[in-house]
Structure formats: C-alpha cells, structure tokens
Amino acid sequence: MAKLRFEALKKLSQRPSVHTDLPSPNVSKFYGENVFGSEQMRATLSPAVFKKVSQAIKNHEKIDEVTADAVASAAKSWAIAKGATHFTHWFQPMTGGTAEKHDSFFDAIAGIEKFKGSELVQQEPDASSFPSGGIRSTFEARGYTAWDPTSPMFLYGKTLSIPTIFVSYTGETLDAKAPLLKALKAVDKAATKVCQLFDKDIQHVVASLGPEQEYFVVDKALFDARPDLVMAGRTVFGHAPARGQQMEDHYFGSIPPRVYDFMKDFEIEAWKLGIPVRTRHNEVAPSQFEVAPLFEEVNVANDHNQLMMDVMARVADRHNLRVIFHEKPFAGLNGSGKHNNWSLITDTGVNLYAPTSSARDNLMFLTFFVTTIKAVHEHADLLRASIATPGNDFRLGANEAPPAIVSVFIGSQMTAVLNELEEKGGNVKIEKGDNMYMKLGIDQIPEIILDATDRNRTSPFAFTGNKFEFRAVGGSDNCGTAMAALNTIVADQLEEFAEAVSKEMEKGAEKRLAIVNVLRKYIKESKDVRFEGDGYSEDWVKEAAKRKLGNVKNMVRALDAYLTKKSVALFEKHGVMSHKENEARVEIKLESYIKRVQIEARVMGDLAMNHIVPTAIAYQTKLITNANGLKGLGVDNATVVQTIKEISGHIDIIKTSVRAMVEERKRINKIADTHERAVGYCDDVKEKYFDVIRDAVDKLELLIDNEDWPLVKYRELLFLR
Ligand code: ADP
Ligand code: MG
C-alpha cells in the first residue's frame, strides 16, 4: 500500500498540463450548440406545431401524438446532422445521479434511421434495478420514462438525450423530477392567485433556481490510491494537515493552474450544452472550488446541475483529476453544499422577492417575503428532511459542523421593515436609507450601492436582497428534492394567505388592509424561525431549543418529517406526492442510507485491519528491535518503549472496535423493519464506532514512519497539484 501511495505521488509530479482552447473567442458562437431548445424548435417545426408545444409547456398541458411526432422527427434530423447515432431517455432515479438507456436511431429491418413521437414520449427501460421502495416489485420490472418537454433535449456525445420523468407501471413517481414538476405547477397556481390580488395581468409565476455548486478537486492517482474515496466518496481516515483552512488564504485566491485548465474545459462543454455557467472561484477549504450558473427556471436549472456534475466528472478525467461532490470528504475542513438561490418571477417579469420603490409592488413583495418565512416556520422539519443525505449528516449537525436547525436570516433592514409592519401596520415604505450608500471618498470611483441585506454565511436559509438562498442543500444532492419541498410549502402558505385575505374582506376590510392584517399575523407567528446571529454558535443551539425549533442531527430521523400527518396531507393536497409515493420515497432513502453506512463501515474495517494494523505492527517491530538494541548498549530507551505502548493501545482499540462493529452489523441486518434497521446503522454503527476507529488510526498516522504509511495523506491530497 505504501508503494501505491508513493507511485501515485510520483505520477503527480509528471502530470502534463492539459489545455483546451475556446472553440471561438465569442462564447455566443457556440453557446447551446448541442441543445434542441426553443430556438431550434422554432426553426425546424411548423409555426402551428411550435405554438402548440410552447403553449403546452407554459400551461403544464399534455402534448398530443401528432405534435410529438413532428417534434421527434425534427429532433432526429437535427441530431443526426450533428453526428448522433442514438437517442436515450435521460432520467433521475432515486439512486442519485442520472440514468440513461441508449437506443439506436437505425432500424435494421427498415434500413433507415427512425425516431417516432411515441418513442420520444415514452419508453420502458428495464427498471428492475432502480429503487422503488416496494411500489414496483422486481418480478414485474416495468417502469416508464415519459418525456418532459419543459426541459430541452440535448446532444451528449453521439446521443440525443431526452429529459424524462420515471414512473412505475401503476403510475407512481420513482424519481426526483416528477414531484418537482408537480410542486412547480402548484406554486405557479398559488402564486398567480396571490399576484392577482395586486395585478390582474399576471397569468403565471415561474420559480427560478441558481444553484452554486461547491466541490473539491484532487489528483486522479492520489484519489484512486485512497480506497475510501473511491468507494465512499469521502475519506474515512486522515489526520488534519499542519495547515488546513486556518490561513483563510484559499478563498478567492488564485486558482491552481491544473484546476484552472479543468474549469475552462468543463465550462466550454457546459456552454455547448446551454448550461449558463458564469462564476468560478476558490472556496474556503484548500482544493475546494465553486461554480455558479446564471439562474433559470427551477426544473431546467436542476437538469443543468445534474448534467453539469456529469460533465465535470468526465472532463476532470481528461485532466487527470477527480472531482468530489460529497458533502464532507475531509474531516476538519469545510464541506460542500449546493446553495439553492431561489425566487419567484411573474410572466410580466417581476421578481416577487425584489423590493422596489413603488408602494403597490412593495406590498406584493412583502406578501411573498412574509408568506415564505411563515411557510418555512410551519414546515421547517420538512425542509430539514428535504436536504437529508448520508453525506449531509457530516456537514450539518455533526461534531465540527453547523447545527441542523432551519432558520431564516433576513438582514437588519428587512428586520426593521417587518418590525415596523408588525407594530404599526399600514404605511410601510422601504426607502433607500443613507446606510445603503457607501461613499469611498475617491472621485474616480462611483458610489457603491450596498446590498439591501447583510450577508450571513451561517444561515441555512438566507434572504439575499432579491432571492432566498437555501444553503443547507448538500453538494452531491439532487436539488429537485429540496426544491419540491420548498415550492410545495410556499404554494400551500400562499393558498392559505389568499383564503385568509378573502375572509378578512368578507368581514368588510378593504383589500390592502386585509392583506396587511394577514401579514402582521404571519410576522408574529413566524418570528421564532428568524435568526440573525451566528448560526454556528453554541448559544444558537440553546436559543433554538428554547424556541422549540427542530435540530434533527441525522438523516434517518429527519426523514420522519415526510410521513407526519401534516406533510402527507400537504403533498396530497397539492398533488405533489400520494401517501404511497411518499412512503416509498422514504423507504428508498432509508435503504440507501443503510447501504452507504454499510459500505463506509466495510471500507473502514478493511483499511484499518488489513492496511493500518499490519503497518503499525511492522513499525512497532522495528521499534522493539531498536528498544532492545538501546537497552543492550545501556542507553535509556524509555521514549521508544512509550511509543511502542502507545501504538499497542491504538491497535487494540482498532481491533476491538472493528470486531464489535461487525457484530453490531450482523445483529442489525436481521432487523426486518427498514426504519429500525436504519436507526441501528446510524446509532450503533456510525455514531458508536466511526469516530473511535478513526481517532485511533489518525493517531497512528502521527506515530508511524512517513515512509511506511499506506494511505495518501491529507496534505498530499489537498496541497499538491
Ligand atoms: P452571491 O450569492 O455569491 O453573492 P449572486 O448573488 O450573484 O452571488 O448569485 C448567486 C446565484 O444566485 C447565481 O447562480 C445567480 O444566478 C442566482 N440568482 C440571482 N438572482 C436570482 C433569482 N432571482 N432567483 C434565483 N437565483 C438567482
Ligand atoms: Mg451566494
């Protein structure tokens, strides 16, 4: 193993730089060239068909067979002209990631390239190997993928890829996309209704998402020499390097050349696919980076995020790098999230979360702003559940991580506005106060307009001036799950709001007053979820407990929130998920949790017993020889003997813990109930043994000769490029 480590390090020093030129200095020349989007449809479909498709997309309607045939035919010609040979339905099963099954356009019997509307609309992949939470029993391995026309088809390699949803034979959803689409429809409906209180011209409201993706980049050889990274996506061992992120010099520092080449390369690929990648920079931890696209409609933005992760992994390979999306790949360093910047935008072009100077628009803004906070307060447990992944457990609620409390940060200015509204009602004006302008005292440089809000990087759900940022979503996660939950709870609250306002009006209140009355009530009721302080502090944990806010530390228990009466009713009411689908989803997540912990436990056991312990014993034997030699010479050998004892101590802990952990697993595997089994894996495997074993291994890393240590060390993984 030590050999593998040193071979990997040697490869690292011989890496050639891989440089890719921009296809054209103008990105606009090749942006979206691999997308069969609205423009391509307009160009290739008859005006009548194009209109039908556009209308169907906008109004969440079905596309008829004739139209589908026309779209399929146009897409086929477009793709084949660009060199495509196959097509695939591209979907997002509950395993995470994306799945595809390629079919050739070429029909050998007919001797021509074919692609019918029915093949565009529906396919039947062999679904037996995708998790279904018991909805689809494996013997009737039928499931369907169905075309999602709201997200454009794209050419990936030589394959025309068609975004689809994935459902069981009996119609239940088995993927991340379907519930999201339903939630987006629900929020459109509810938000439009509320908007019409202010502006009758508004016919639709679209939710938008700009997911900032954090990730780590590590050399391929070093990554591949760490079985834990390969199998579990995170390091289960590794002593913190002498220099971690305490210097805070990585953030916004210059990007290392190899990583820079990689970024430029994947950006080109992303642009060709119409993914509006815009920002790149270093993140807080060494070797951690971020990429952010321009925001888009939620469903498309999420598809683009999923696709971008795939593009990044493939392009990284060309650069002899590996990209890591895991929420907490390295202990002691910041984890990776996917900050979901979210807002609601009307078809008249108004961002409902952007304050303006017009009084009417501001009441509309305040309505959406306050209602959203109220929704988060009402359903904080569900939001927590919606971001639960095995990896996020290490990033939220764990030892060195921020707590898993869902709270909302709105900044001092908006706090003042809400306080005023709560106290006085009526006449609230949002003015650009003096504090919003910062004079720099340098004539050549214009005044900088300060953001309407402060920034708080410790809040899981922060208002950032014209959008909310749901920052607790995990780096490897599918945003669709969090977005489905968020848009559903907001839809629900907006509906309740509309009802409450009409009740007030029935009692005789004038419309504006009725609105203000309901908002004042919401502000009072949801105050506890608002927190402006340091979300990472111990004080907040105590304060949140006093406020009775949830702080569910692990995924297994967090998921319970999906199955409360309240949540089940919520999802059913808005047509997002049936009770059965909801239960199946939780079952799938619990199963995947169990598997993940199982894999990590095995990797840990294997590495500890077969790599670390033998290395420690070999080194100890050398020390024993040394101690005896010293003794023979009459030299004091006390420190050597002390080290030998320390090593023994750690070896003992490792052996007994790994053995006990194996026994626990055997016991837990016999438990029939999935939830109980998952709790077992969480409490009696992960919580009980992982840290103990890790601690002993990491201490050995400090004691044993560097030349002998089998695992690539943190400082090598993180600082060598
Ligand atoms: P930061 O939050 O780091 O200051 P920005 O404010 O520029 O950065 O935006 C971060 C992300 O938020 C980007 O992906 C951006 O496109 C997205 N974003 C900006 N406005 C909206 C909006 N109205 N709705 C959704 N996402 C948005
Ligand atoms: Mg941000």
Report what the structure shows.
The structure is a single chain. With 721 residues, the protein is α+β, with helices and mostly antiparallel strands. The protein folds into three domains: 166 residues, Roll (Ubiquitin-like (UB roll)); 385 residues, Creatine Kinase, Chain A, domain 2; 132 residues, Four Helix Bundle (Hemerythrin (Met), subunit A). The protein is 49% helix and 13% strand. It contains 23 helices and 20 strands. The strands form four sheets. Strands 10, 11, 12, 13, 14, 15, 16, 19 and 20 form a nine-stranded mixed beta sheet that branches. The longest helix has 54 residues. About 3% of the residues have low confidence.
Summary, kept brief:
Helix 14 crosses helix 16 and helix 20 runs antiparallel to helix 21. The longest helix is centred in the C-terminal third of the chain and has 54 residues. By secondary structure, this protein is an alpha+beta fold.
Query: What is the name of the CATH architecture of the largest domain?
Result: 2-Layer Sandwich
CATH class wording of the largest domain: Alpha Beta
* pLDDT averaged residue by residue: 90
Rough outline: globular
Radius of gyration: 28 Å
Low-confidence segments, given as residue ranges, are 428-450
DSSP strand content: 5-15%
Name the bound molecules. adenosine-5'-diphosphate, magnesium ion
Estimated structural class: alpha+beta
Give a short account of the largest sheet.
Answer: 9 strands, mixed
E-strand count: 20
Helix content: 40-55%
Write the CATH fold name of the largest domain: Creatine Kinase, Chain A, domain 2
Total domain units: 3
Head-to-tail CA distance between termini = 21 Å
Name the CATH superfamily assignment of the largest domain: Glutamine synthetase/guanido kinase, catalytic domain
The helix tally amounts to 23
